[in-house]
Specification:
The protein has 58 residues and is of the alpha+beta class. Helices cover 31% and strands 26% of the residues. This is Large ribosomal subunit protein uL30.
């Protein structure tokens, strides 16, 4: 299956608890960290939820 790389570019400070939990679920919790995950609809939905704090790296 295809992989997708995600980089955190926004801070979780002053964000809701569910957005913070989504970042942790994606394997991110500090700025400029990167995570490589399977490209599934579930992961795409999580990225969409916190799209203002992450960047998809090609």
């Amino acid at each position: 299956m295809a992989k997708i790389k995600i980089k955190q570019v926004g801070s979780p400070i002053r964000r809701t608890k569910d957005q913070r939990a989504t970042l942790v679920g994606l394997g991110l919790n500090k700025l400029h960290r990167m995570s490589e995950l399977e490209d599934t609809p579930e992961v795409r939905g999580m990225i969409r939820k916190v799209q203002h704090m992450v960047q998809v790296v090609e």
